[in-house]
Amino acid sequence: MISKFLLKSMFKQWKNGDYQVVFWDNSVYRNGEHSPKFTLKIHRPLKFSDIKKDMSLTIAEAYMDGVIDIEGSMDEVMHSLYLQTNYEHLHKHDNAKAIQKPIKESSNISKHYDLGNDFYSIWLDETLSYSCAYFKKDDDTLHAAQLQKLDHTLKKLHLKPGEKLLDIGCGWGYLSVKAAQEYGAQVMGITISSEQYKQANKRVQELGLEDKVTIKLLNYQDLDGRLYRFDKVVSVGMFEHVGKDNLPFYFKKVKEVLKRGGMFLLHSILCCFEGKTNAWVDKYIFPGGYLPSLREVMSVMSECDFHLLMAESLRIHYAKTLDIWRDNFNHNLDQVKRLGYDERFIRMWDLYLRTCASAFRVGSADLFQLLLTNSVDNTFPLTKEYIYQ
């Protein structure tokens, strides 16, 4: 077992923030000069096997196992961790260990998205949109905000009837369907999740849109510019799975299938610093994922001759989206349990939604929509008023 002395030594490395740790014998370790803003309660000594090199992984796994509980504001926890990460980044510049090996993402993505359509339908809205919603009013329902996100996205692309649209990472197909039904586009959606592929195809068939929408079980890496050419490309919420070493290849593939002057809208979570991948999220939530910085993305896209037309942060929108997802999840735990998910999974998923919402609120993560053109396009509208008409 790990003694309190060793645990205190571990927490002393977590220098930022006003917090306290209450041990199993009710003794207390405090950090900071002011009243604690959050409390970690450790219910029993940790085993040597519980202690990981990464502190966030140690705490998160102990939370999943019910060994640790977190009381107080998760925003304060994430702000403290963000300050610690910032400190380490400025003083160590040790990002080499976080660089991934090149990956073929199929198996990694399946681990997350193939949890089952029944699971996601419990806490997502009716569109099964597993990405940031767009709130025009504070009291918008999640469903209304997701529909607004789809329109906000498609309007930015200045989509015209008959244009060919590629939807990379089409999910359960709602954006692809909406683009065809309401904007008159000819759409090809691709996913590497078999569960999403089945559901998206079912939706297309039920609506009789087989002549306008094609859903393929296809990795973007296997797109062939000799077979496919598109006027517009959209990618919502899949770029996070590409991986650091695959960023240049991703943009080259988009360029290969996008007509010269064509528009590309990239909707993705970005982070503040390069090379930082949360060990717990990588192990349990998004294996093989990587959140690039805005600086990284701008550098890679410029090398591929993509030109930025617009960049919009939807950071606060994503925090609100995640709060609603978490409420939906926790209000329907009986359904989650009936699907066979145990208490450890439930604590894991709740922690994932809770910490992500806080990460967006404190600014350690951001959500950007980047509108790009393949090479220079001087025919684009002079103002952005067309988006809001």
TrEMBL record:
MF terms (GO), sorted A to Z: cyclopropane-fatty-acyl-phospholipid synthase activity
Keyword Cell division listed: no
Record-annotated DUF7884 domain positions: 7-86
Its EC number(s): 2.1.1.79
GO biological process terms held by the UniProt record: lipid biosynthetic process; methylation
Pfam families reported for this sequence: CMAS, DUF7884
Keyword Methyltransferase tagged: yes
Alphabetized UniProt keyword annotations: Lipid metabolism, Methyltransferase, S-adenosyl-L-methionine, Transferase
EC category: transferase
Record: active site: 356
Stated family: Belongs to the CFA/CMAS family.
Name under which the protein is recorded: Cyclopropane fatty acid synthase
